[in-house]
Amino acid sequence: MAKKYENMNDYNSEPELKKKRMTLNPFENMFKKDGKGVEKDEVKVLDKPGLVNFFKLLQRKLNHIFSVNILMIFGNFPIFFGLLAFAYTMGEGMAPASGVYPLLRGASYFDNSPIVMSLLGAYGNQDTVAMPSTASIVLFALTLLVLITFGLVNVGTTYIIRNLIRGEQVYIMSDFWYAIKRNWKQGIIYGIIDILLIAVLAYDIIYYRTNMGVSALFMTMYVAGYCMIILYGFVRMYAYPMIVTFDMKLWKIIKNSIFFAVLGIKRNVMALLGAVIVVGLDLILIRVFLPIGAVIPFIILFGLLQYMSVYAAFPKIKQIMIDPYYKEVESEENAET
Fold first, then answer.
1. How would DSSP label each residue in 205-222?
2. Is 289 helix (H, G, I), strand (E, B) or coil?
3. Which of 93, 73, 92 is nearest to 83 (CA)?
């Protein structure tokens, strides 16, 4: 991967570039204030990206994590169209509760024996099912816009958190749009790939879980589905930080992300454990006290998961792809002098 370092996306010049940017966004002042600042004796996160600095940085930048969470929720606003369709616009109808009924109904046209008719009566119970209406179809179509927004929002929020880890001054809205403007093509393409892969893997897990009792093969595929979604979770941890940091082709970013899913296994597992703990605690709160558990995702959950992901991934990217590049450049400059 050594030759991939050469096209970095203005990695060192980004603070200077941002100083020259102006914004007309009316909401800029809502997110513009930084934290308390950096203490004189505080170690930079990237110098020692361990668990202690993880919590120190989280405490100092908690307001930014809140802001990132808001961007992740409202930036993916098409999801609300789907929720609205399910909640208010779906019609109701009656349909057989058993999937065996259509087969028995077809058999009854050729065989009117008492056995077939008895089975038809036993499996012919009707149940209330949701029926799509015109309004719900329109809302579901609008929900597909999330294929566009998903990658863009992840690009913008990843850039913000990456800069927090680098110790830079962060202006939430201007940095968010700055990252999207510079990386919108790769953000959209990878966002579509990302959300489709997540959907396919999630569907596989649900399908094999439903049919685990059919054979041992379905049980094996069910376990394999979880392994695949964990592995892909590790891959996507590195894809978005590389999109906002390097100027390279998307297929190279994906290939490098696969390498990092193995090379950074220790940090990846720690991020996974952190995500499991946070999501698990929220699920417990939902069962114990629903109002608090239901509100947490809208306040901090998604921003915190994004923070864990980038905190785990970016120091490894810096160690393997960025530091060797600058050491090589420095050695070449010394050789010339």
1. HHHHHHTTTT-HHHHHHH
2. coil
3. 73
Q: Which residues of 19-45 are buried (b: 16+ CB within 10 A; e: fewer)?
A: eeeeeebeeeeebeebeeeeeeeeeeb
Judge whether 158 and 314 are in contact, CB under 8 Å.
Answer: no
The residue ranges of every structural domain in the chain are 25-31+46-90+132-329
Q: What is the mean pLDDT of residues 147-157?
A: 97
Question: In whole angstroms, how large is the CA radius of gyration of the chain?
Answer: 25
Distance, CA of 289 to CA of 168 (rounded, Å): 38
Tokens at 193, concatenated: 């790939």
Q: State both tokens at 261.
A: 């899913």
* Tokens read off for 87: 């909640």
Task: Report the chain's mean pLDDT, rounded to a whole number.
Answer: 83
Given a cut of 80, whether residue 143 has pLDDT beyond it is: yes
The pLDDT score that the predictor gives to residue 320 is 93
Lowest mean pLDDT among 64-68, 76-80, 100-104: 100-104
Predicted confidence (pLDDT) at residue 25 exceeds the cutoff of 50: no
What pTM, to 2 d.p., does this model score?
0.81
Distance (Å, rounded) from C-alpha 16 to C-alpha 283?
43
The Cα 330–Cα 337 span in angstroms is: 11
| Strand (E) or helix (H) holding 259 | helix 250-263
